[in-house]
Design goal:
Chain B: It comes from Skeletonema marinoi. Chain B: Pfam families: eIF2A. Chain B: Component of the eukaryotic translation initiation factor 3 (eIF-3) complex, which is involved in protein synthesis and, together with other initiation factors, stimulates binding of mRNA and methionyl-tRNAi to the 40S ribosome. Chain B: Component of the eukaryotic translation initiation factor 3 (eIF-3) complex. The complex is a heterodimer of chains A (330) and B (714). Chain A is mostly beta strands. Chain A has two domains: 167 residues, Methylamine Dehydrogenase, Chain H (7 Propeller), CATH 2.130.10.10; 129 residues, 7 Propeller (Methylamine Dehydrogenase, Chain H), CATH 2.130.10.10. Chain A has five helices and 23 strands. The longest helix of chain A has 7 residues. Chain A starts with a strand and ends in a 31-residue tail after the last helix. By secondary structure, chain B is α+β, with helices and mostly antiparallel strands. Among the domains of chain B are: 97 residues, 2-Layer Sandwich (Alpha-Beta Plaits); 155 residues, Methylamine Dehydrogenase, Chain H (7 Propeller), CATH 2.130.10; 37 residues, no CATH class. Chain B has ten helices and 43 strands. The longest helix of chain B has 47 residues. Classes of the chains: A mainly beta (330), B alpha+beta (714).
C-alpha cells in the first residue's frame, strides 16, 4: 500500500514517535514546531507552538495526556496534549538533546549539551500529574553531570550507566522502549548494534553500507528497522540512487536484511513503529514523514525457521521434498 | 796528462751516472685477448685444400670487421693450425680482430653459423677457450636424478562433481577463491587459511589465473610471483621478480612473463619456464631505439611500452619495435632466424588466437599508404595486404577462433576535420583471404566478435560524445532464403552465402561497452564507468529478448568461462585509494538471464577474476549434448534439489541454535523486568500496564478523549 506522505514540517525531521496506544504520531523537526498526527489517516491534529529552536526530541506520556519536548533553545517544555498549551518551561544551560518520561508519568528526564562553562547533564524533573502545574519546581530533583568529552547524546547512556553506580530503578525511567536498547554507531561504521540493558552486553550487529541514523525494534515481530543513508552534506554531489535513503528491515536474531523501503530523498533521521505493529513512520532530512501501513504479506510473515523441527533436519539422509516458503516483504 | 785533463774538462757533464734520459717508449703491453676468438667445428681438410678453406674462412670472418694487422709482422690476424701427423687441419681457427667490439659481434653472429651441411660453427672468446684448456678432465659421472616428487594435480578442480566454476577475489587484505554454481550463493573454496596460520601473506597485490586455469599466481611485489595449484592451492613454484606489477601466462601454460613496469630496469620483463622455475631471458621495458631520443622525458613517459604477445602454441613470443616486430623462438629465446620481421612504420600487431599468423597495421609512411598486413610465421609469407587511405587510426580485433579479423578503421576527410569509420573484415580461413569493407557512417565506439560465432556487434552513434547510442549486429554469412533467417548461422548449410549482412539494430541504448557471452548468443550492453548509470542490458540475440538490470557505478563486466553467469564489480586500484572509488565497492553475480544470484560489498574491493577453463568439447560433441538435454536436465535437477535441501537444513539448524540462544537472553531480561513490576506499578499508582484486561477498559476512555479533541479542532 502506498504510504501517506505527511507534509507539514518545513525543515528536516528529527524525531517521530507513536504514543503508547498507537493512534497518534508525534513528530518534530528543525522548524521549531512539533506536530501531532492521526495514525489512522495521516491527518494533522495540531501543533505545539512556543519553542524558538530545533526540537531534538520529544516524548509522550503513557496515557497521552502530556508531552515533553527537548529543544535547542536550551529549554524543555511540558505540554498539555489535548489542548496543545504549554504547561511549563524548564530552562537548561545548554541545548536539550533528549527527553523521556518515567514510568508513571510523574517524572521526566532530559539530557542537555555542554554549553560554555556548563557540562552536559541529565536532569530529572518532578511533575506529578495530579498537582497544580504552578507548584512544579524549576530545578530538577536530580542532576547528573556528564564528563565534558561526551556529546550529550542520549545514545551515550550505556557508557554512562557503566561508569556511574546509578540505581537500577532509574533504568526504566529513562529508557525508551523495551528491555533492550540499540546503540547507534551508524554514522561512522554503518552498523546498528543491539545491547542488553542490564549487563550492557553486546548481542547483535546489523551491517549496512551507508550511515545509520536511527534504528527501532518491532514490538510484535523479531524485526529491527534501520534508517539512514548517505550523509546530508554529501548528498548534493551524488544522485539519489547512491544515497540509499532506505528503511532496511533486518531480522533481529539472524542479522539478515530481508527487505527495504525506498521513497525518501534525504537520509532518514527518525523511525518509529506503531506499538500495535501495523504501521511505521519514517522522517528524513528532506522534511517529509512517510507513514507506512504494512501489507498483509508482512503481517503474516513467519520466522524463516519453523518452530517445529523439520523432517530431516536432524538426520541428513532423508531427502524428501518438504518446503516452507520464506516470504519477503516489499 | 794536461791534454787528458783538458779532454776530461771538455767532456765534463757529458757522461753522467744518471740513467739515460729519455728511456725508450715501448707501447704498453696489451695482455688482453678480448680481440681474439676461436672458431671450432670447421671442416678438417687435407693439405691440398688448406688454402681454399683458409680463404673461405678469412672471407667470412672479415665480413664482421677488419682483422688485426701489425706493421713489420706478417701476422694477418688469422691462423688455422694444421696437424702434420694426421695430414689434415685440426678443425679450428684463431682470429684476432682490430677491436674487441668486432670480436664480440663475431661471437654473436657466427655462433651456430651453418658453414656447410655438416658443420655449424662454434665460436668462443679466447678467454673461455684458455679456461677450457685448463680444465682437468675427469671421468663423467652420471648425476643421480632427483627423487621423483609427485606434483599436485593442477586439473583436480575440473573434476568437481557439480561442474562448478571458480573465481578469485581480492578485497582489503584478503584473497579468496570461491565456487560458483550459478544458482546459490558462492561457496568459499580457499582463503589462504594455511598461510594465515603460518603468519605469511599469500598475496599482497593482484592475482592472475593461468589461461587454462591450472595455476593461480599471486603477486608479492617485494619478492615476486608465487604459483599455486592443485587441491587446497599448494605452493608449486616461486619466481623472483622484484617489484612485479603484472604477469602474463603463455596460452599453453608453459611459460610466464613478469613485468615490473620499471623503465630504468634492464631486466624489467622476465620470461620464466613454469616447470623448471628458471628465468629464460630478461628484457628492458622498451626495445632499443623504440623511444625517439629527441623526445623529452615527459613525452617519453606518455608512450606506453609495447606489450609482448605469445603465439597460441607457445612457440613464439613477439614484441613490436621501431619499424619491426621482434619474434623470439621459445624456449631458446633467440630471434627467429636471427632477424626481426621488418614492418615499416608499424603501429600495432595482433597474433591470431588459433594460428601462427600476425596481423599488423602501419599508418601512412614515406609515400606509402597506410596498410594492414597479415603475415604467416615462421615462413614470414605475407598472406594478405590491404592498403588504406586517409587513416587516422586502426584497431585490430581477431575473432576467438581466428576465423575472422576485423579492422576498425577511423578515417578522416581531406580537411582532417571530421572523422568517420569503416570496418575491414578479413576471412582468414578462406583461400586468398577475401576482405570485405563495411561502411559505417557513424562513429564506432566498440567492436566485438561473438566468440565461436560469425556475428559481431558494434556500438555506434553519430556523435561519439552522445549519450544515446545504437547497437548493430552483423553476420559474416547470409542465408539465401530470407525466410530462414532465424536459423543458426554457424551450421554449414548450403544456403549460406559468405557475405556480410546486417542482422538488426537496437536504437537509443545507453551503453558504452558490449560483452558477448563466451557461449555466444547472449550479449551484455553495459554503461560502465564513473559518469555512467551502470545499466546492464541482457540481450538474447536469437530470441530477441531483453532484460534490463542495474549495478550502480559498476566498472567491470566479467563472464564466467562457461557463459552461465557473469559478475559485475565496483573495484578500485590497489594503492590508488581515491575517494571517488571508495563507495559501493563489491560485486554482483548474475545468471546469463539477468537474475541476481549474489551480492557482496566490501570496504575496499580490488579484483575479481574467473578461473578460466579449457573448452574440451568440439562443436559436434556440444551438439550431441544439447540434443539430449532433456535427459541431463532431469538428472541435474534432482541433484540440485537434494543439494538445496541439504543446504537449507544446515542453515535452519544454525539459525535455530542462534534463536534459542537469543531467546534465553531475552527470557533472562524479561525476568529482571518482571521482578521490577511492583516498583513500576507503584509508580503508576498501582496500575498494571501489562494486564491486558486492564488495558482494554482503559482504551475506551482514551477514545472518548480523542473525540473531544476533534471538537476542539473544528
Amino acid at each position: 500500500m502506498r504510504p501517506i506522505l505527511l507534509k507539514g514540517h518545513e525543515r528536516s525531521i528529527t524525531v517521530v514517535k507513536f504514543n503508547f496506544d498507537g493512534d497518534l504520531l508525534f513528530t518534530a523537526s528543525k522548524d521549531h514546531i512539533p506536530s501531532v498526527w492521526r495514525n489512522e489517516n495521516g491527518e494533522r491534529i495540531g501543533t505545539f507552538n512556543g519553542h524558538k529552536g530545533t526540537i531534538w526530541d520529544l516524548d509522550v506520556c503513557r496515557f497521552s495526556k502530556r508531552v515533553v519536548t527537548a529543544s535547542a533553545d536550551a529549554s524543555a517544555k511540558l505540554w498539555d496534549c489535548e489542548t496543545g498549551e504549554c504547561i511549563k518551561t524548564f530552562v537548561h544551560h545548554g541545548p536539550v538533546r533528549g527527553a523521556a518520561w518515567a514510568d508513571g508519568s510523574n517524572m521526566f528526564a532530559t539530557i542537555s549539551d555542554p554549553f560554555v562553562e556548563h557540562n552536559a547533564q541529565i536532569s530529572v524533573y518532578d511533575v506529578p500529574e495530579n498537582d497544580d502545574p504552578s507548584s512544579y519546581s524549576d530545578s530538577p530533583r536530580l542532576e547528573i553531570d556528564l564528563p565534558k568529552t561526551s556529546d550529550g547524546n542520549v545514545s551515550m547512556l550505556p557508557t554512562l550507566f557503566g561508569s556511574t553506580s546509578m540505581k537500577l530503578s532509574l533504568l526504566p525511567l529513562i529508557m525508551v522502549q523495551s528491555v533492550y536498547m540499540i546503540r547507534r554507531q551508524g554514522r561512522t561504521d554503518f552498523t546498528a548494534k543491539l545491547y542488553d540493558v542490564v549487563d550492557l552486553k553486546h548481542l547483535k550487529t546489523y551491517k549496512t553500507d551507508r550511515p545509520v541514523n536511527d534504528a527501532v525494534i518491532s514490538e510484535t515481530k523479531d524485526h529491527i528497522l534501520l534508517g539512514g543513508g548517505q550523509e546530508a552534506m554529501s548528498v548534493t554531489t551524488t544522485s539519489g540512487k547512491v544515497g540509499k535513503f532506505e528503511t532496511r528491515f533486518f531480522h533481529l536474531v539472524y542479522e539478515e536484511e530481508f527487505g527495504s523501503v525506498k521513497g525518501h530523498f534525504g537520509p532518514i533521521n527518525a523511525l518509529a513503529i506503531n506499538p500495535n505493529g501495523r504501521s511505521y513512520a519514517s522522517g528524513a532530512e528532506d522534511g517529509y514523514i512517510r507513514l507506512h501501513y504494512f501489507d498483509k504479506s508482512y503481517l503474516d510473515m513467519k520466522d524463516p525457521v519453523p518452530e517445529v523441527l523439520e523432517e530431516g533436519e536432524e538426520d541428513d539422509d532423508e531427502m524428501e521434498e518438504d518446503r516452507e516458503s520464506d516470504s519477503d516483504s516489499d | 796528462m794536461a791534454d787528458l785533463a783538458d779532454e776530461a774538462a771538455s767532456l765534463d757533464g757529458y757522461f753522467s751516472d744518471a740513467p739515460l734520459e729519455p728511456e725508450p717508449k715501448y707501447p704498453p703491453l696489451n695482455e688482453s685477448f678480448d680481440r681474439c676468438v676461436i672458431i671450432t667445428n670447421l671442416p678438417k681438410v687435407p693439405e691440398a685444400k688448406y688454402e681454399k678453406l683458409g680463404k673461405v674462412v678469412l672471407k667470412l670472418v672479415s665480413r664482421i670487421g677488419p682483422l688485426a694487422n701489425y706493421e713489420g709482422s706478417d701476422f694477418t690476424g688469422f691462423f688455422m693450425p694444421f696437424d702434420k701427423e694426421a695430414g689434415a687441419t685440426v678443425g679450428c681457427a684463431f682470429i684476432e680482430y682490430e677491436t674487441a667490439g668486432d670480436a664480440k659481434k663475431a661471437i654473436e653472429v657466427l655462433e651456430e653459423y651453418k658453414f656447410d651441411k655438416n658443420h655449424a660453427l662454434h665460436v668462443l672468446p679466447h678467454e673461455r677457450a684458455s679456461h677450457l684448456a685448463d680444465v682437468e678432465e675427469e671421468e663423467f659421472k652420471q648425476p643421480e636424478p632427483e627423487p621423483f616428487k609427485e606434483q599436485p594435480n593442477t586439473m583436480s578442480w575440473l573434476e568437481d562433481s557439480c561442474q562448478r566454476d571458480q573465481f578469485a577475489i581480492r578485497h582489503g587484505k584478503e584473497t579468496a577463491v570461491f565456487w560458483n554454481d550459478g544458482r546459490e550463493e558462492p561457496v568459499l573454496d580457499y582463503d589462504g587459511a594455511r598461510e594465515k596460520e603460518a603468519g605469511v601473506a599469500w598475496c599482497e597485490y593482484y592475482v592472475q589465473w593461468s589461461p587454462k586455469g591450472s595455476y593461480f599466481a599471486t603477486l608479492v611485489p617485494n619478492r615476486g610471483v608465487i604459483l599455486w595449484g592443485g587441491d587446497n592451492f599448494q605452493k608449486l613454484q616461486r619466481f623472483a621478480a622484484p617489484g612485479v606489477d603484472f604477469v602474463v601466462f603463455s596460452p599453453q601454460e608453459n611459460y610466464m612473463m613478469t613485468n615490473n613496469n620499471n623503465r630504468n630496469d634492464p631486466h624489467a620483463i622476465k620470461v620464466f619456464s613454469i616447470q623448471t622455475g628458471k628465468c629464460l631471458r630478461a628484457f628492458p621495458l622498451y626495445p632499443s631505439n623504440f623511444l625517439d631520443e629527441k623526445l623529452s622525458e615527459q613525452e617519453k613517459s606518455n608512450i606506453p611500452p609495447p606489450p609482448f604477445q605469445w603465439s597460441h602454441d607457445d612457440k613464439y613470443l613477439a614484441r613490436m619495435g621501431k619499424d619491426l616486430i621482434s619474434v623470439f623462438d621459445v624456449p631458446t629465446m633467440k630471434l627467429l632466424d636471427k632477424r626481426s620481421l621488418a614492418c615499416d612504420g608499424i603501429c600495432e600487431f595482433q597474433f591470431s588466437p588459433k594460428a601462427n599468423i600476425i596481423a599488423y597495421w602501419a599508418p601512412e609512411h614515406k609515400n606509402q599508404p597506410a596498410n594492414v598486413n597479415v603475415i604467416e610465421l615462421p615462413s614470414r609469407k605475407s598472406l594478405r595486404q590491404k592498403n588504406l587511405f586517409n587513416v587516422t587510426k586502426c584497431s585490430l580485433v581477431w575473432q576467438e577462433n581466428g576465423e575472422y579479423l576485423g579492422v576498425k578503421v577511423t578515417r578522416h576527410t581531406k580537411s582532417k576535420k571530421t572523422l568517420y569509420n569503416n570496418l575491414e573484415l578479413f576471412r582468414v580461413n578462406e583461400p586468398g583471404i577475401p576482405v570485405e569493407m563495411l561502411d559505417v557512417k557513424d562513429a564506432v565506439m566498440a567492436f566485438s566478435w561473438e566468440p565461436q560465432g560469425s556475428r559481431f556487434a558494434i556500438i555506434h552513434a553519430e556523435n561519439p560524445t552522445s549519450t544515446k547510442v545504437n547497437v548493430t549486429f552483423y553476420d559474416m554469412f547470409r542465408m539465401s532464403e530470407p525466410e530462414k533467417k532465424k536459423g543458426k548461422k554457424k551450421s554449414t548449410g548450403k544456403e549460406l552465402i559468405a557475405e556480410v549482412n546486417k542482422v538488426e539494430t537496437l536504437e537509443g541504448k545507453q551503453c558504452n561497452c558490449i560483452f558477448w557471452s563466451p557461449a555466444g548468443r547472449t550479449i551484455i550492453l553495459a554503461a560502465l564507468g564513473d559518469s555512467a548509470s551502470g545499466t546492464l542490458e541482457f540481450y538474447d540475440c536469437d530470441n530477441k529478448s531483453l532484460v534490463i538490470k542495474e549495478h550502480y557505478r559498476a566498472n567491470q563486466v566479467l563472464w564466467d568461462p562457461s557463459g552461465r553467469t557473469l559478475a559485475t564489480t565496483v573495484s578500485q586500484p590497489i594503492g590508488g585509494g581515491h575517494f571517488k572509488f571508495a563507495m559501493d565497492n563489491g560485486y554482483i553475480v548474475w545468471s546469463f538471464q539477468g537474475k541476481q544470484i549474489s551480492q557482496q560489498s566490501f570496504e575496499t574491493f580490488y579484483q575479481f577474476q574467473w578461473r578460466p577453463r579449457e573448452k574440451l568439447f568440439n562443436k559436434k560433441e556440444t551438439a550431441e549434448v544439447s540434443k539430449n538435454l532433456k535427459k541431463y536436465e532431469k538428472q541435474f535437477n534432482a541433484f540440485d534439489e537434494a543439494k538445496k535441501r541439504k543446504l537449507r537444513l544446515e542453515e535452519t539448524r544454525g539459525k535455530r541454535k542462534n534463536r534459542s540462544a537469543f531467546r534465553a537472553t531475552l527470557a533472562r531480561l524479561k525476568e529482571i523486568r518482571s521482578n521490577m513490576k511492583q516498583e513500576r506499578m507503584a509508580l503508576l499508582n498501582g496500575y498494571d500496564s501489562e494486564d491486558e484486561g486492564n488495558f482494554t477498559t482503559k482504551e475506551v476512555t482514551i477514545e472518548t478523549i480523542l473525540s473531544s479533541k476533534e471538537e476542539l479542532v473544528y
